[in-house]
Amino acid sequence: MRMDKLLSNMGYGTRKEVKKVMKSGGVHVNGQPVKEGKHHVDPEQDIVTVFGEVVKYKRYIYLLMNKPKGVISATEDAEHETVIDLLLHEDALFEPFPVGRLDKDTEGLLLLTNDGQFSHSLMSPKKHVTKTYRASIRGEVTETDIQLFREGVTLDDGYVTKPADLVILEKGVQSEIELTITEGKFHQVKRMFEAVGKKVTYLKRIKIADLALDPNLESGTYRELKKEEWDLLFLER
Asked: Which residues form the RNA-binding S4 domain (predicted)?
C-alpha cells in the first residue's frame, strides 16, 4: 500500500497533509525515514511510526448501527441523508457500506463494513440468515396469518415467500408482532402483510441471526461490533 494512502486511511490527515508530515521527516518505516508518499509498505509486516507513534493498521471495519427513520441505507444519495453521513470521519475513511438495506422509513439494526466477504456471508440467499423485525400492523393479525406466513405468502408480483415465523405480541385493530424471515426481497415485510389484507405502520429490525440490536444504542448512533457479537453471526473467516 502507498504510504500516503495508509496514513490517510488510518486518520492522520488528507493525503496532502500526510505528505507534508513525511517531508518533515516525521514518518519512519522499520526505523528508517520515508519522505515520499508513493513509497510502498506492507502495513501488516512493516513497523510504521509517525513522530514516534506506531501506526496501528486495521484493514476492515465492522459497525453496528441503530438506523433512524428517514435515512437511506446507501453510501451516497443526492437528495437524502445516508447512513454513511452519520459516521465519524475516522470511520468513514474506511469506506464502509451497508450490509443489506433497510427502507428509508424502517429503523433498527444495520451492519456496515468494508469487508465484502463478511457482507456476502450474511446476505447471500444460500446462507438463509434470519432477520427479525418488530412491527405495528393496522388490522387484527390472527392465527390464520401465522399459518399463512409459515407456509409462505404470494406477493403482488407472484413471488411466494419462504416460510416465516410470525409471533403476535398484541392483537386488535392495531396489532403488534414480531416476524422472522430468511430472505430480503424489496419491501418484503410490508408486502407480506399487504398480501393478507393488512398494513405495516411501523417497522424496526431487532435481530440478525442471533445478534440483537443493542438497547443502549440510541437512534442514529453506532459502535464497532464486539468479538462476542461476531460469534453470534456464526460466520467463518
From this structure: 1-59
